[in-house]
Amino acid sequence: MKRLLGPLAVVLLLGAASPALAQDSLAAAKAAGQVGERPDGLAGAVPGAPPPVQALVQQVNAQRLARYREIAQGNGVPLDAVQARAGERLISQTPAGQYVMTGAGRWVKK
To answer: Where are the domains of the chain?
Structure first.
């Protein structure tokens, strides 16, 4: 018997169509415990996340890196400094119960 796509999978597949939908999909994946924030300002797929979630993370990270590069170039600062600042902000804004990556590379629930 074929397995039906759940509502989150449908949202994730649709999220590939536009940045706004990607952000909605990212929020849903975070709430589902499949994605977390990393100290480098990028999103990360928590181990066990399905392939559509991993694809979403790649899409979101490409958008984030493009924006971080713009900020770094516009302000004459290194890219890694922009990423570190974004990571601090994103982790601090992550609600309790969602995943964040520690400096040691481990996923923990905030």
So the answer is: 7-102
